[in-house]
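ok so for the tutorial part 2 we go from a plain amino acid sequence to predicted structure tokens. step 1 is just haveing the sequence, like this:
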Amino acid sequence: MRLYHPYNRKFGKFHHHTIDSFIHEYSRAHSRCSFIQVGGNDGITWDPFHYFIVRDKWQGIVLEPQREVFERRLSRTYRGVSGVQLVNAAVDVIDGVRPL
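step 2 — the prediction. this is what the tokens look like for a chain of 100 residues:
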């Protein structure tokens, strides 16, 4: 799997004082990183975690409420990536179903 990180590709390195720099340093300092991501979309576009999930083998949960995006894109992005559980659901204050 090819790793793509928009900041790394554009600038050739992580810039200090950015969320990506912080995540990079944190991930390198901790051998096991766990996460919960709410709103995974396709798992790549403007995703601050994807690069680190694949590179550093993070384990966690990705929630994406849009069924079509979940089935056609997100599930393909993380097919074969161990340690990542995909959930087609939204977070709300009450249990049930509602239009998005």
